[in-house]
Structures are given as structure tokens and as C-alpha cells.
Automatic annotation (TrEMBL):
Record SMART domains: AAA
Family from the record: Belongs to the ABC transporter superfamily.
Protein name, per record: Hemin ABC transporter ATP-binding protein
CDD domains: ABC_MJ0796_LolCDE_FtsE
Signal peptide: none
Highest taxon above the source species: Bacteria
An example molecular function term from Gene Ontology annotations: ATP binding
SUPFAM superfamilies: P-loop containing nucleoside triphosphate hydrolases
One GO cellular component term: membrane protein complex
ABC transporter domain span: 6-232
Length: 232
């Protein structure tokens, strides 16, 4: 039996444009297992960002079903969706989106704080993640003092603070050169394998696709399996 972190069933997303209907996603189905790293590739305007937003409970589908872990989020209230995003999803954005006036350690501690937790266990977990990511020497640094690769590693560490079922990464290498971009994707891969999480990454960066387990292509609103690098 599959151990699924994310399921999308018959997902359609459309908008009314004047007198016509613009279909962004057309009856999409996807399953992502714990321990699996999935990449979504496709041209600009193909629906990748919409796809990721629906997967992360940031946008509702026109029709279809989204299941995160064991929770069907399709008909959840706004408050319930906020709880899902806060507790079961880790987000890594194209821009690291670090808060400029918080230190590296404070960036991580903010996540449990938003859920009403401010205990020693959270701080110890944050410090252990920073050590794991090779950032212990940057604990008290502010973002302006970090390199681009360090900022993204902080962002990935932050995404793990809520111990999510799934990490959603939106073009995480977009602002990085080749070696640093590869390092960031390798870090995501290492973490999901170590903690048996799942990751879904939208990317244009063909150079890192050998690091993922499964590659899907989205085009004209349709999702197709392109390649499996390993047997899942």
C-alpha cells in the first residue's frame, strides 16, 4: 500500500475571461509518496505556479480533490486551511523570503512561534537543523550578510521547522548559479530522504533533474509523466 503525502484527483482550474473559459489545469491527477522527490517542468504560462498553489492549499481548484497526508482539504474552512499550511506543508520560494530584521536562528524559531510554541525544544531543533545545513556559524547573522546559497539553505531549514508531510519548492534555484543551485536541490533531496518527507518542486532548471525521483511535464494545462529516475 502506498504511503502518500499528497494526492491530486481530477483537478481542474479555470477562469472566466470575458465570454470564454480559460482552462489552466485540465483534469490533473498526481500522487506523491513519502520519501519521493518530484519535479514539475514546463514552459512559462503552462500552469506550474497554479498547480503548486493548489497543492499547497493557497488556491482552491474549480473541481477535483486535494488530499494532504490523510486530510482531504477540498472543503475545509479558511481557518482549517491555515492550520494545514502551518503544520503539514513546508514552503521554499523562488526568492528565499527571509525577514531582513531577524537573525538566521530567529527565522527558524518564528515558524513554531506562529503556532503558539516558544519552547526550548523548538530552539534546539532549529539549532540542530542549522548544524545539519552547515549554518551553525551563521546563527546570529542577518540575511544581508549571507550568500545566495546560504539564504536558500536557511529557507529550506525553515521549511522543515513544522516537520511537514510535504515540501513545496517554487523555482528554488532561480536566483542561484549552477553549483549553488545544485547544492540547494541536493539539500532538499537529502532532507526528504533522511526524514521520509516528500517534495514537489517546480523548476526550469534542467541541470538538477537528475537529483529528483520523478519528473512530470505540464503543458497546455495537462500533466504527463516524463521520467522516473528510480523505481518508486
Amino acid at each position: 500500500m502506498k504511503d502518500l503525502a499528497l494526492q491530486l484527483k481530477n483537478i481542474t482550474k479555470s477562469y472566466i475571461d470575458g465570454e470564454s473559459e480559460n482552462i489552466v489545469l485540465n483534469n490533473i491527477n498526481l500522487e506523491v509518496e513519502h520519501g519521493e522527490f518530484v519535479a514539475i517542468v514546463g514552459p512559462s504560462g503552462s500552469g506550474k505556479s497554479t498547480f503548486l498553489s493548489i497543492s499547497g492549499a493557497l488556491l482552491s481548484a474549480t473541481s477535483g480533490q486535494v488530499i494532504i497526508g490523510k486530510n482531504d482539504i477540498t472543503k475545509m474552512s479558511k481557518k482549517e486551511l491555515e492550520d494545514i499550511r502551518r503544520n503539514q506543508i513546508g514552503f521554499v520560494f523562488q526568492s528565499h523570503q527571509l525577514i531582513p530584521y531577524l537573525t538566521v536562528l530567529e527565522q527558524l524559531k518564528l515558524i513554531p512561534l506562529l503556532s503558539g510554541k516558544n519552547d526550548k525544544d523548538s530552539e534546539n531543533y532549529a539549532k540542530s537543523l542549522l548544524e545539519e545545513f552547515g549554518l551553525s556559524h551563521r546563527t546570529n547573522y542577518y540575511p544581508e550578510k549571507l550568500s545566495g546559497g546560504e539564504k536558500q539553505r536557511v529557507a529550506i531549514a525553515r521549511s522543515l521547522m513544522n516537520k511537514p508531510d510535504i515540501i513545496l519548492a517554487d523555482e528554488p534555484t532561480a536566483s542561484l548559479d549552477g553549483p549553488r543551485g545544485r547544492e540547494v536541490v541536493q539539500t532538499i533531496r537529502d532532507e526528504i530522504k533522511k526524514y521520509n518527507k516528500a517534495a514537489l518542486m517546480v523548476t526550469h532548471d534542467e541541470r538538477v533533474l537528475d537529483l529528483v525521483d520523478t519528473i512530470y511535464r505540464i503543458e497546455n494545462g495537462n500533466l504527463t509523466l516524463e521520467k522516473r529516475n528510480v523505481a518508486i
